[in-house]
Amino acid sequence: MRMKKAMAVAMAAAMLAAGSTTMGFTAAAEPAASYPYQLVDFTDFENGDTWGFVSTDQNVAPVTVVDQTDANKALEWAINRSRSTRNGGMYNVEKRFDTPIYGEQVKVEFDWRPGETDYVKREGLVHLAQVSLIDEDRNVIFSINNNVLHDGYLSYTVGEGGTSNGSYRKMLPFSDIWAWYHVSIEVDFAKDEVNLVIYDKANPEAVTTVSGIDLSVSNQLGNLGHIDLRMIRPGGDCMILDSMLIDNMAVYKTASTEDTAVSTPAEYDFTTVYVGAAPTLADVKLPSVVDVKLANGNTVSVPVTSWSCPDYNNAVSGMYLATATLGTAQGVTLSRDLTAHMWVYVRETVENRLEVSRLVENLDRGVVALQADDGIFVSWRLLASEYQADIAFNVYRNGSKINETPITTKTNLLDPLGKPGDEYVVQTIKPNESEWSEAVTASSENFLSIPIQKPANTTDVSGKQNISYNANDIMTADLDGDGQYEYIVRWYPSNGVDSGSNGRLTGPTIFDAYDTDGTILWRINIGYNMTSGEHYNQLTVQDYNGDGKAEVALLTADGTTVYAPDRATNTIDMDCPLAVIGDPTADYVIRTNSEKNNSANRVGHISEDATIFFTMFDGATGAPIDTVDYYAQTVNAGFWGDLDYNRSDRYKATSAFIQDADGAATGHNAALMCRGYYERTTVAAYSLDENNKIRLDWAHDTWYYDEEAQTWKPKDGNNFYECRGAHSTTVADVDNDGFDEFIGGAYCLDQDGTVLWSADGLFGRPNLAHGDALHVGAFLPGVDGLQLMMPHEELQDRTNSVSFLDAATGECLSGNDTNTGDVGRGVIANIDPNPGFEYWASGYPVYSAVDGSVAYESQGGMPTNFTVYWDGDLLTENLDKTNVTKPVVGEVDGKPAITGNTTLLSMTGTTHGNGSKGVPGLTADVLGDWREEIIMRTSDNTAIRIYSTTTPTDYMIYTLMHDSAYRMQCAGQMGAYNQPNHLSFYLGEDVRDQILNMELVKPNTYTVEYSAVAEASATPNPVSPDEPFTATIVTDLTVDWIDLYNEAGNGLVSTNRSMVEANGLRTWTLTTSLGTAGERTLSIGTTLADGSFVMSSKQLNVKVEKTISGDPDSFRFVKVTPKFDVAKVNTPITYEVVTEGDVERLAFFNESGAGLTTVNSVVEQGNQKVWTISVPLGTPGKRTLSIRAKLPGGVWSDGYDVSLTIVR
């Protein structure tokens, strides 16, 4: 890639050489052009005409020609603050040239009075007024800026760096906003650089010249298409501009013949090869001709003489920029050393992804039995590890099998004779084993109901208002490690706010966790020191320490309180908190605007003085495991883009599977906590280490802390993210490295928090804006990768309103490239049997994801919110508010059309969430076969319902919760504007045969069987018979009592009990002893907080040694030591025996004197032999065997009796 050129800034007492600038113009006198320039156009505005400058909003930001005090006229642009109601963004005045201006050099000269951009200096906020040169495709080339209010000086920027965050603003030594300046901007397309000359017309001898400004980052097309006056405002109060004046504007270009090639397209195309393919660049399919633009505006093709890319490496995945050297074509002259570029993406395959094994939930069979139209519909779960395996199922109703032959091709069954109340069990048949599910009772409805407990009404922090609660978003995970999903309900107060709305004192957000029978596990009250609203209190949940059950990740504040239930009544005891985070007496709620800078939108927000915490909670009990200060503290709301918290109070949360260490083939789950996406953007990845302490895996931040200045500042390149974030977030392994990337909108972070790509308009990627919806998944058949679909809000100079991108590169595959305003909603779904998904957005037709063509001119009334896999085919259905619908595909006027929508499910008695978004509490594959469940709250807030399909299907697919992208996206559904989960593999009716043949790529997964007991050890170990030892048992917080049991199931007497709780764990110590020698295996019985008793899968191993000495003369034995003398039936018991050296063999003899087949191994040690002998015994009980030695001459010694115990 091209390197940046050195930039020189010089102050001169006189004008530079001819052609660099002029001294300004006399009114109405057309300037003379200096060689090599020719004048293209000029105006002094004396005729009262605006010269084609048009305002985007003449009522608010009018552009007019006005008289000056010297009787000259000038162009004036002002913004009326009383009419400016924008929350952020840009006002614009544009002059568009009818024909783009081409030339090796183009120069624009004008006189400029910057004017005042705001009425008060506001820390961290930039109201930026610009004069910008822009090409025909509206790529910004260069801008000169009035940002005196913020930085103290005028400045210049290249490309989109002219935006408000100031990453690329370079200061100029001028600060008088009411002075007249003469500006000369020479764009040298041949050298890819800009030369700037500026001086104060009142002091024309003090000239500032900046030469060789690197233009390569601007992505410009090599022409001048527009001159814009722009006012950019990141947020806060409404804009003001008083007033910018322009006079004596002239445009020049260098003379060139009409057939001179002056530029190549700035767009960079992409081509893909896979790791290991195309060993050299010559093996990559790169074009032999490229298009060039002529000075007359025509486009012709010229040959490529060679492609080069010194760092190309087909063994390492990544993006490589290849550069073409161009030849000449007949009649075409190259004006300079023109080059063309193409990205070569060396891509990993899906097979590479499978080299990394992922932890997934250790789920049970998930049987569900619901009332259907023609009986009881029974369905059950197939695990990823069972896909393509030798497996079959039988279904039993009330103890009787109801299928004639084992079921091998699906995981559902319609029982026409079944009725509500019948009990169903599914038997799983595997080679050499059979498993039985838990019994489930058939429901009389097409849903399951879980009772929930609405919190009591409350007040705001001042004790006023009567605030009630509604159940809102829902999260699911296996919180207690039992193989079944539990559910976390978020309760929103009735006065929750949007970050950008007028402030008010909100009630606290509350989270409850419920088991499927309605047992409440815990309640977390966030407290008043965190505002309540859709963009605030977002929870994500996964197994962050790899113990087999989920932990809960949440931002907390001083006063966040956890409550445990009263098990006897299954209610929350609000008078007995389990734990409190921070200082419960702290109060950081802003009550009046006068408290902070007199901003209009601060009431109800939290002071910058408050500390935000990040806490991991135990999923089963809600007890805090660990708490740390959150990475992205507020410090100053202005650092995030405005002072009224509309930019700073934008939170999102999700989970991802990230790499353990650089280069490792193993990974772990992390919680990704996000703050900011309009301007400053942060993402922090947290997990739990081996000591159950919170670990910050990485943090991505577009700002940095300047230690010398003791303040936060934006990093260079911050503009790449400005207004590209979405109101939602998603994760998926987009580059097939086996680990998840974070997609926060129109940009993507790699699994280590570094930037993978940004839709910044550079290198062939589109220049995209912020949006509400965001979808990532496998939407194209036969494509080894994932795609991203996103609608966008209007923002000046941003391209697409709807975009469909390659999720690994940001390359635009298709979309609508008009900018039509705020496209609030958009969705992608596979709605017809044709290959590929379809996508649509508010106000747009339905597009085919395959080629971007219009699939259906009209949406035909389809909703634009959520999708769900519901009926029996491989297509997606639409979910909107409380209805599931399926589009009817037909024709209108001979063209394909959506002619209607069939309602498949109406969830009467329930209520959707989040206003116009019309979203469910959750969609996820939590029960039954691979189709999704819809989880809704009842309208009276007394229950949540789990709706599951009752339509049979012939497709056998493993649970979607074992698909990496789907499961992690489910963990982010509580984040702001929640979106449906999408898969990392393609489903559609066009691949029906592949699915029926079970030819999906099987994921590489593993599970951990959860045990409430984490560790068990004994000290000392080994011990002698009846010698006391100390057992140390480490458990989670659900365990209230520990007991030890011997191999026969008898409890051991213990003393000296103690328990210490720390880091989300309980460490138990107790003293006991064992009388019988051997390798002893003790069971650990746990009494849980809910009163239930569980025998842990973890065991305590203790070696009890007993030395038995015999008479060497009679036995030839020196020592007999049992390895263990308690064993199960038909499990070998083992003894170690030391004999004299003349012993030839040892054998066991039973109580009847019969010899037993004895396995011998021996090691000679000097004049002795050390034997290991073992024998299995089939008869249980107390046994006495004899060990005899075979001596030389075939004589057997007398027997040595040993006692042992055989148990079943």
What keyword list fits this structure?
1208 residues; mainly beta; nine-stranded antiparallel beta sheet; seven-stranded antiparallel beta sheet; 5 helices
Rg (C-alpha, Å)? 37 Å
Which sheet architecture does the biggest sheet show? Answer: 9 strands, antiparallel
Mean pLDDT: 86
Q: What separation lies between the terminal Cα atoms?
A: 74 Å
Number of helices: 5
Decide which structural class fits the backbone: mainly beta
Give a description of the structure.
The protein is mainly beta. Strands 1, 2, 4, 5, 7, 12, 13, 14 and 16 form a 9-stranded antiparallel beta sheet that branches. Strand 46 and strand 47 form a beta hairpin.
Summarize it.
By secondary structure, the protein is mainly beta. Helix content is 2%, strand content 44%.
List the helices and strands and how they pair.
Layout: E1 8-12, E2 37-43, E3 54-55, E4 63-67, E5 73-79, E6 89-101, E7 105-113, E8 128-134, E9 140-146, H1 148-151, E10 154-158, E11 170-171, E12 181-188, E13 193-200, E14 207-214, E15 224-233, E16 241-254, E17 260-263, E18 269-274, E19 289-294, E20 299-308, E21 318-326, E22 333-334, E23 339-347, H2 350-353, E24 358-359, E25 368-372, E26 375-379, E27 392-397, E28 400-401, E29 412-415, E30 423-430, E31 433-436, E32 440-441, E33 447-451, E34 469-477, E35 486-493, E36 510-514, E37 520-525, E38 540-542, E39 551-557, E40 561-566, E41 571-580, E42 612-618, E43 624-629, E44 651-659, E45 667-675, E46 682-688, E47 694-701, E48 703-706, E49 711-714, E50 725-732, E51 741-745, E52 747-749, E53 755-758, E54 775-777, E55 787-791, E56 802-806, E57 812-816, E58 826-829, E59 838-841, E60 846-848, E61 854-856, E62 866-868, E63 877-880, E64 883-892, E65 895-906, E66 910-911, E67 922-924, E68 933-938, E69 943-947, H3 964-970, H4 992-996, E70 1005-1006, E71 1013-1019, E72 1029-1035, E73 1039-1045, E74 1055-1062, E75 1065-1072, E76 1078-1088, ...
Parallel strand pairs: 17-22, 18-23, 24-70, 79-87
Antiparallel strand pairs: 1-14, 2-16, 3-6, 4-5, 5-16, 6-15, 7-12, 7-16, 8-9, 8-15, 9-10, 10-11, 12-13, 13-14, 17-19, 19-20, 20-21, 21-23, 25-26, 26-29, 27-28, 27-30, 30-31, 30-32, 33-69, 34-35, 35-36, 36-37, 37-40, 38-39, 39-42, 40-41, 42-43, 44-45, 45-46, 46-47, 48-49, 50-51, 51-52, 52-53, ...
